[in-house]
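tool=predict chain=A
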Amino acid sequence: MGALPLRSALVPPPPAAGVPALRFSAVDLRRNGVTVLREVEWQVEDGQRWVVLGPNGSGKTSLLQLASGYDHPSQGTVDVLGRRLGRVDVRSLRTRLGITSAAVANMLRPGITATEAVMSGKYGALETWWHDYDDHDHQRARVLLADAGFGDIAGRRWAQLSSGERQQVLLARALMGHPELVLLDEPNAGLDLAARERLLSRLTELAADVDVPTMVLVTHHVEEIPPGFAHLLLLCEGRVVAAGRIEDTLTAHSLHAAFGVRVHLAHHEGRWALRGAP
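tool=predict ok
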């Protein structure tokens, strides 16, 4: 069985050339009287791979909720794939997105199989009985798992999967529907060393594939930045500390500004590492 392409002639065309995948302009987000994002300016071009980095409570997940249309800005504008929140049917918009998050993982039924969970991503659903699927869909789901090195779990049920296996299923699910934008909310959270490295290896492969769409990865550990993610948005207390190419923005100085601790930062063979400075 040969690998299937990540796009097909049946997929809606991507945004017009020159239209950013994401554009945040002077964005504030307030919840229950508390401002969680402040004056955010951010633009993600089509095909780029971005990391959103920052300490707990810095606004990373809130930023992704705006990018996925699950929240709306209190002030400013958010454009997703050329469509402005507040002027677009977000249900239609979300069919063009691939999303992994703890919320999605918690909503999947324990008895659903890995293949079914992946297939459900075609329509952004949680169950396969909500829509019709054909042999091509079954094949694509199995190939996405096999390409990640997890073809052997295709028939296993969600409740039987380890945390690392579940993250690989969620990633395959995010790719199932031929998305134009993939949003990954802390996919490495809670993984042991081996599972983390396998997931980072898969993300590195995807980052290098020109057929894989724009990707945004949220984390708060520089060690979890896969090679190939060339841009960084650094947040602290809801504000942008730095944004741009990762070699310019990921520095000991910017990390001190965001996390409040002095560090030594190293980069070797595409991977980042840091340790606290005296």
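Residues 102-178 form one domain. Residues 1-13 have pLDDT under 50 and may be disordered.
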